[in-house]
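Reply to dn_fold:

You asked what the input looked like. This is it:
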Amino acid sequence: MMNTVPLGQSDLRVTPICLGTMTFGEQVAEADAHAILDRALERGVNFIDTAEMYAVPARAETFGATETIIGRWFAQRPGARAKVVLATKVAGPSRGMPWVREGQGMTAADIVASCDASLKRLQTDVIDLYQIHWPERHVPAFGTLYYDPAKETSKTPIREQLDALAGLVQAGKVRHIGLSNETPWGVHEFVRLAEAHGLPRVATVQNPYCLVNRSWDNGMDESCHRLDVSLLAYSPLAFGLLTGKFDQHAPTDAGAPQGARIARYESVRKQRWGRPESLAAARRYNQLARDHGLTPTQLALAFCYRSWRVASTIIGVTSMAQLDEDLDAWNTQLSPELLAAIDAIRWELRDPAQ
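and this is what came back:
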């Protein structure tokens, strides 16, 4: 049975497994999405994460679809909203998605307008955790390794972003705030400014964390531990690489599973998860799991579930069977010897999906 855990210094308490929903409205039809939400709630999950830009891969036709599906689920299930901690996100600068908003940035007015639109789609009066999906400033993210000051295009200072978020909190539209795809400097600056000016303090950071991408362990772990900001780990299965489904055939091979996101969408394959080095490392971890009597999924999820660094792990599923498998992995324990073997592979291969 999962106990709830606190998020940062907020009063939010969530289950250490969070249901991610970005497949709803693309790979998962609405009726199936509602059934998955029902099962997650039935099995004790009280934490749901979404975003205004979902479904994924992002398209104008499905922008906002996931929030709309969740909103209709709330409307059809009286009492469900009160049982869950609801998290969503405001998109950062466009990144090639002009349908998100006019202009290339993320202004204070954009934050307010996005929040209002999310509230309407979600059919709720308040968002429990409102997160900035990626920084407004230029940072290395989504597979980019290096910070390049020449690419800086920031127009909205962090203080201005915090002021806008504070207005949403004061208006009762948002309870707490968080970040996503952030850097150590960004977290420190958000916390510093909040504490200096009496503004809302970020409770969480949602960043990738899995066996083939432990870049969090290179500085973010200490920063967030000392600042009391909680990690919400996304992509714990590395877009399916850590399930073993691609151990025999790469995502682009004719024999690869065609239902997988990474197999279906070229944009995903071009990012960190599609690198040959990421697949090679995943196959090493998957074999390590089998050598210890575990499935690859059990090893990958247990690694996140049991890490002191992770407050809640975000799982994304496309079927009831996947949901049950991911939740059942909560009971998997990893021995000190197995954890040492995991670290040995990382020492050799580092973080190929960073």
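The CA atoms of residues 91 and 339 lie 36 Å apart.
Hope that clears it up.
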